[in-house]
Amino acid sequence: MAHIVFKGVYTALLTPFKDGKLDEKAFQSFVDWQVKEGINGLVPCGTTGESPTLTHEEHHRVVELCIEVAKGRVPVMAGTGSNSTAEAIDLTRHAKQAGADGALIVAPYYNKPTQEGIYQHYKAIHDAVDLPIIIYNIPGRSVINITDDTLARLSELPNIVGVKDATGDLARVYTLRAKAKKPLQLLSGEDMTATAFNAAGGQGCISVSSNIMPKRCAEIQDACMKGDFVKALELNEPLVPLHNVMFCETSPAPVKYAASLMGKCQPDLRLPLVTLTEDSKKQVAQVLKSLHLL
User: Fold this and answer.
1) CATH number at residue 207
2) Which residues are catalytic?
3) How does DSSP assign 145-158, residue by residue?
4) pLDDT band for position 4 (50/70/90)?
5) How far is CA 292 from CA 6, 171, 220, 240, in A?
6) Does the predicted model carry a pTM greater than 0.90?
């Protein structure tokens, strides 16, 4: 199949809740705002979207709503990962049927599979669903690190098109580029180092901060794609406090609270995540004020 090129900034979308239920109206409005602000792509049902606490029905609905609102204006890369291979296949099948342009599939967490198990997990999904796959490597949450050798082996599969790297290890851009069997689309999973990641050979970022400042995040990535890293650094500098405060507590609690202050959604989270402490709320509000967002 012809693959879309995933590059620039993709927003790891938050999932608004209200009274314990999916707030469809807020989500639709938020997605439309993101597109109008110039975001390059959308990622529903990722970590920031609280995917572990969504029911299958809610997961399907969020993906469908995102695709419906995007209307082809930007690509949609649906989060379809799970620590159950069968469940990941089902979620990926649904994403394809709904019209997603690709699937972001996180490393299978908690189970702690071997590298061979990781390879077989992704291969099974790849073989079951004809959809471009971005592998999501985030050892800090999944407890396993997908090695360069395993990623290189997976790169031989036609529909494995890229990697979202959230290790924070910028050297991995170089080592993976050297080992991959074909050119992969390498996307940073960390806002703070995204510009440096691109300078090392990356093509973009799946961003938390772009939930709050999509236009500026898109401008930063645009400068990177043009090779103007001096401009990218200048544009990014004022956002450093935002990148930091988005992780003052477990994400997505800070980004949801920030979005609530901007009138985009309620700050509601699902257990076991809880709302921010008062001190963290003050930190988030202070950063938004400094950026003239409040």
Assistant:
1) 3.20.20.70
2) 136, 164
3) ---HHHHHHHTTST
4) confident
5) 31, 35, 18, 15
6) yes
